[in-house]
TrEMBL record, chains A, B:
A family per Pfam: SpoVAD
Listed GO MF terms: acyltransferase activity
NCBIfam families hit by this protein: PRK08304.1, PRK12404.1, spore_V_AD
Protein name per its UniProtKB record: Stage V sporulation protein AD
Gene3D superfamilies cross-referenced by the UniProt entry: Stage V sporulation protein AD
């Protein structure tokens, strides 16, 4: 058997690992954005027919998971494990979703990097034969995140222009061996990087060093360069982080400009009032599990790298004067020409 | 290659997977308990020399991880991944510990089941060759948990006798292929089970059905029965849960009585004022990574099953009237006679 790693931090999957199906559910602002046609479920209300925002968030996750399984032509009972996480305290969106699904759960927390963390570990478990089919899922909701991380929503606290807007949505992907769908080829597991930034509104800037660390590690480990991909996205650096990231990669001699974008910029129109762009677990999850997968299936994209970025702080840690530790995990996808 | 699973939920490790070293750090009450002689670090103060309880908790985790690596005769730079989780919002103890360690992080959340969740996935990654060495770690702290989950500690809220006492401590184990130390043979990944219990003080009762589900699945998947082990522990069911669990297993024709104990009962003396017993991620982690590993190394125990139990609720979920979804993950260990 080959070594299923290239370098210390990058896994190279040995089997033909596929994303068999994926689905997303989103809120009204996302449904009004430029990627609306790619989405499976769009809710015109932040409650999504539920009695609280928290219940709405888990409803979105449940919808995404159920639809992803359906689109994979599988039954819920065929899924061995759901790997899921979210931003809420004790990841309740994931716990209550898994409770409803009756599928074994591996709960994960990587803040907004959870989308690619769950997918990386899920793909590794399938590759090694620990599971036949897994679902990777995550969610975020603008109102549940605002009231938990910042101020009561009714207070109407003002934000600086460099702040970001938590995406309301959920994304899920079903991973299996063989079958049809884009191939998952590599995953790069990130280190926690903390450059001392303490402003909880400026997460884009805080997350850049982690994104640079994981992406340059990915290139070093795989021997690839940016133009080996026709699209490379970060999860949610927003406008500010996007520009700094491109500059910092250039200093390391990686020219990102022809292929680089950020999910937090892709999910909203420039004229939507989202400050510096989208953030939250759902930013990378919604864009990856809809637009990117659809393009890979259609063959209009052939090789994509998704680097999901997470700010690993809590209100308690920043109120105690701590800086914001960050992390990024990256997954590489390839289109497969079906015969 | 053999199928690395027996049954849908149980992983059977194919290689010679070992717990190369483990360590724990605890607070004063635990250091006054019956297992004190087994502990690596005992702090006589809840602050453990730090400026806040939160910083104390991550200091314990850091100590446990660093000592576990030392006891494995490895360098920190040889560890490929740390898999860690804790009870604090956004698992900040784990994030800040990983930030200090400079080792790639897979953050996990399974409430008090996190000890065996991180160890299961860590062992699977080593078994399949995705990592050479990993550390699994988790922590809890009585004061950080009280102020976060219940009332401000200074308020002195009274508790019912059936409540439990969050263990202050951290445990960590280093997993590698070959080498010396107890063997990790199986892991059973649990489903979320929710029987509608809503009292956040009665977690022992709430967690019983999840423990029963995972343990009976483990027996079914492996073809084993309770007396194939010379010790089986649950993580933190406490006095109330312990009794109900034994009864419910008996109804399924599994007689647990000769070999069964609960980590939450083992870690304190009966006369220590801890209500129904210990709870928290550290309950199973501290007992497993000290006493149980020491006994397996000494050969006084030969085969042990640790079933860590977790209550997957948050203050928001129970204040919104939700029941408490629970989960349990189990790991089987075997003593290895060194030549």
């Amino acid at each position: 058997m080959n070594e299923p790693r290239c370098g210390r931090q990058t896994w190279q999957f040995q089997q033909d690992i596929r994303l068999l199906g994926s689905a997303v559910a989103v809120g009204p602002l996302e449904g009004d954005g430029p990627l609306a046609a790619e989405f499976d479920h769009i809710h015109d209300n932040m409650y999504a027919g539920q009695k609280s925002w928290e219940k709405a968030e888990r409803h979105l996750m449940c919808q995404a998971v159920e639809t992803a399984i359906e689109k994979s032509n599988l039954l819920q009972s065929e899924i061995d494990i759901v790997l899921a996480g979210d931003l809420l305290n004790q990841t309740i969106s994931s716990n209550f979703t898994a409770s409803k699904l009756n599928i074994p759960l591996l709960g994960m927390f990587g803040a907004c990097s959870t989308s690619m963390e769950t997918l990386s570990v899920g793909a590794a478990l399938v590759d090694a034969g620990y599971a036949h089919y897994v679902v990777a899922a995550c969610s975020s909701h603008n109102c549940t995140a605002e009231k938990q991380f910042r101020y009561p929503t009714a207070y109407g606290g003002q934000k600086p222009e460099y702040a970001q807007w938590t995406v309301t949505g959920a994304g899920a992907g079903v991973v299996g061996k063989d079958g049809s769908g884009p191939r998952i080829t590599h995953a790069t597991i990130g280190k926690v990087v903390d450059m001392g930034i303490k402003d909880p509104f400026d997460m884009g800037t805080a997350m850049v060093p982690a994104a640079v660390d994981t992406m340059s590690t990915h290139f070093r480990d795989t021997g690839r360069v940016p133009h080996d991909y026709d699209l490379i996205v970060t999860g949610d650096l927003g406008k500010i982080g996007y520009a700094i990231f491109k500059d910092e990669m250039k200093e390391l001699a990686y020219d990102m400009s022809p292929v680089y974008n950020d999910c937090g910029l892709m999910i909203y129109r420039p004229d939507q009032a989202v400050f510096s762009g989208g953030s939250g677990c759902a930013s990378s999850a919604v864009v990856t599990y809809s637009y990117i997968m659809n393009q890979l299936r259609a063959g209009t994209l052939t090789r994509v790298l998704v680097c999901a970025t997470g700010a690993l702080f809590s209100p308690v840690s920043y109120q105690q004067g701590e800086s914001i530790p960050c992390i990024a995990h990256a997954v590489a996808f390839e289109a497969v020409k079906e015969e």
